[in-house]
From TrEMBL:
Domain named Transglycosylase SLT: residues: 26-314
Domain Peptidoglycan binding-like: residue ranges: 334-389
SUPFAM superfamilies documented for this protein: Lysozyme-like (SSF53955), PGBD-like (SSF47090)
Superkingdom assignment: Bacteria
Xref: PANTHER family: LYTIC MUREIN TRANSGLYCOSYLASE, MEMBRANE-BOUND LYTIC MUREIN TRANSGLYCOSYLASE B
Signal peptide location: 1-19
Keywords noted in UniProt: Signal
Full protein name: Lytic murein transglycosylase
Organism: Palleronia salina
Keyword Signal found: yes
Amino acid sequence: MRQTLAALALIPLATAAAAQECGGSFADFKQRMESEAVARGADPATARAFFDGVRQDQETLAADRRQGVFTLPFTDFARRLISADRINRGQANARQYADTFDRIEAEYGVSRGVLLAFWAFETDYGAFQGDFNTVNSLVTLAHDCRRPELFRPQVFAALELFAQGGLDPDTTTGAWAGEIGMVQMLPEDILENGVDADGNGTVDLKTSPRDALMSGAKMLQSLGWRANEPWLEEVDVPASMDWSQAALEIKKSPAEWEALGVAPRDGDWDADLPASLLLPQGHEGPAFVAYPNFDVYFEWNQSFTYVLTAAYFATRLEGAPVFDAGNPAPGLSDAQMKSLQQKLAARGHDVGDIDGILGAGTRAAVRAEQQRLGLPADAWPTTQLLNAL
């Protein structure tokens, strides 16, 4: 759940001299991990049983390097993930588990649409939870020197789950990055936020929707979700304004946005809270304001496109209309995006890896160059900007 999929792709790679030990012989690495687990207090026999059958998984490493879907523009990505069938099944699940959602909203203040959207996107409402051996994946990724600091703690958390009877290193499966269950939670998060919602004495996130939904809600609360507040609202924007104000880090009150000509599409603000204006495809495309709860989404996943799509889908499941796609300027191809990132980096901007992904660093650099060149500073990269550079 947290730090999944694109999240892992967007975190800077570790250096060869990683902060945490990694690499070398996989067998030696397993032995070192087992010894460290025992030094941390694990029962030696339990640690031996946990690590004994672990195998390096090349498919996990391959999956870690495949992130092409996150290069899609918001509109294309949303249309790929959101369908009438997913909406209908989401609404059916909302009715079927209404008692659980009522309890969630009372105890954690997390709206049902938010959890339904994650449930849909992560596993298609539980239908596709992943078939990677969880322990193999976690140890493989801890051994790999790309992001060992993320996965080493998850290995030890998985060992604790095993000791508690909540994980079998031979049979427990999930996503390639080690997430388990219907809303895809990492072992550390299961330990901290797992809830036995159905009262059967176990926390089962793979077969119990009630356990999975309650655990996901508790986790969102622990990450800072503000009870009973909105997260996203579609707006209309004027034909021209200072587009550089459309940025996650810039927050204004509804009154301040109204003074700039921004207005809710349905005529009413969802809340009198500070909000950021989001233009995922520039000033001629869709427009939203994001309230404080929107920031919590980035603790679940760090891809802006994924987060915005999940947040929007949550509003759709609760009755919001289809967003106005507008008529945005065409986006760049993968090769063009990489060329743009190279040009931005050459001008001194920190865009991270040259990966073709429109991440936060690339957006900030695009906005800065648009301002310098006198173009609409909406952080949407176009061929006009590429050619100008």
